Automatic annotation (TrEMBL):
Protein name: Spore gernimation protein
Location relative to the cell: Membrane
Statement: the UniProt record of this protein carries the keyword Membrane: yes
Family (UniProt): Belongs to the amino acid-polyamine-organocation (APC) superfamily. Spore germination protein (SGP) (TC 2.A.3.9) family.
Spans traversing the lipid bilayer: 12-30, 42-62, 82-101, 113-136, 148-167, 187-205, 217-237, 272-295, 307-329, 335-358
GO terms for cellular component: membrane
A single GO BP: spore germination
Superkingdom as given in the UniProt entry: Bacteria
Main location class: membrane
Cross-referenced InterPro entries: Spore_GerAB
Membrane association type: Multi-pass membrane protein
Length: 375
């Protein structure tokens, strides 16, 4: 990941992360969290905040002490290409698998609620073309687009939260710990899988014109927690803990029961805007970051068109493999999200340890405390 153009301010990077990780926390994470913890799922989110705060501090430590070209460029220059490839491989796998699962989940949702009679092949082709265009347009175009998309996404979210207040029963959030501590611990696994995506800040740092501060990351973490807690507690208060677990998309079901007076209802097309905005940016961004690992020289902020086409052809082939919905959801619940949690924990700890070792070695040899790409 060398020769990157520093073209974005931190605020633009955070809009990208709020849209992309927000989709995970808002859509994919909540049904799995409800399955794991039921009524206690919202308590799991609150109890995970101190843990996430510690790893947020580690991410801030890594970003603060990395050279301008980024963490992985520094690792390659310091430890060689082999070690860098080994450390990068889990990140590459995560980016591709997450893009695939986001794409697949979006198609399942569209086919179930909006395009039941449409050809799956046509849906896949149209979405692949759109996401491919977003990736090829570059991270600057994605960031600018996110700046326009995110305000409406947030407005719609606040709108649904307020208008459904009359059907919410806060008493359904209690009693807590009725089944002991195990559900809370299980829910923590899925919560951290969403919150620790703040690790992506390390991948985005080379594009930032200014140094990313800890307080900015803290605000981002609080927003990500809110994106889980809001629809999660609303689902429990509106449907009850037993019924909420049965829904595949609890956040969307909240749109389906929305009603204003006697004449205004069926406003769930607003959810379509939210879902597509988050999914397209998430897939486009992750595939862009994936391509950055295979690009030595970049022209401005765009990837090579051939590389983008090859990556999306591989993604399209993976998408076209027939996987039934039940198996897909079980893979996410039993394997993908727990693996993501473990991946982020290990990757952040290893990255922080490498920065610490390099920093101590440079101090011992009388170099600057700010780490350079070469020792």
């Amino acid at each position: 990941m060398q020769s990157l153009t520093r073209i974005l301010i931190p605020r633009q990077l955070f809009t990208l992360l709020i849209l992309s990780t927000g989709l995970l926390n808002h859509v994919i994470l909540i049904p799995n969290l409800l399955t794991a913890s039921g009524r206690d799922s919202w308590l799991s989110v609150l109890l995970c905040f101190p843990v996430a705060l510690f790893f947020l501090w580690l991410v801030s430590y890594i970003v603060k002490n990395c050279p301008d070209e980024g963490f992985f460029s520094m690792v390659q220059n310091r430890f060689g290409k082999v070690f860098s490839a080994i450390l990068s491989l889990p990140v590459v796998l995560f980016l591709f698998c997450s893009s695939y699962l986001t794409f697949k989940d979006l198609v399942i949702w569209l086919n179930a609620y909006f395009l039941a009679d449409a050809s799956l092949l046509m849906i896949n082709i149209m979405l692949i073309v759109v996401c491919c265009a977003v990736t090829w347009a570059g991270i600057r175009s994605m960031a600018i687009s996110s700046g326009f998309l995110l305000p409406l996404v947030m407005i719609f979210g606040i709108f649904i939260a307020i208008t459904n207040t009359s059907v919410k029963d806060p008493q359904l959030l209690f009693p807590l710990l009725a089944d002991g501590y195990e559900p809370v611990i299980n829910g923590g696994i899925y919560t951290l899988a969403g919150l620790l995506e703040i690790y992506l800040v390390i991948l985005l740092q080379p594009f930032s014109q200014a140094r990313i501060k800890f307080h900015q990351l803290l605000v981002l973490l609080i927003i990500l927690i809110g994106l889980i807690l809001g629809p999660l507690t609303a689902a429990i208060m509106e449907f009850g803990p037993t019924e909420a677990v049965t829904f595949r998309y609890p956040a969307y079901e909240q749109w389906r029961i929305l009603k204003i007076g006697d004449f205004i209802s069926h406003l769930d097309f607003f959810a379509l805007y939210q879902w597509l905005s988050g999914a397209v940016i998430r897939i486009g961004l992750f595939m862009y970051l994936l391509g950055a690992f295979f690009t030595k020289k970049k022209h401005h902020y765009r990837l090579n068109a051939k590389l983008v086409i090859i990556m999306y052809l591989l993604l399209f082939v993976a998408i076209m493999i027939d996987v039934d919905t039940y198996t897909f959801t079980q893979v996410i619940y039993q394997y993908f999200l727990p693996a993501c949690m473990a991946f982020f924990l290990i990757q952040i700890l290893i990255s922080a340890l490498l920065i610490f070792v390099i920093k101590k070695r440079d101090e011992k040899h009388g170099n600057d405390t700010r780490i350079n790409s070469t020792g």
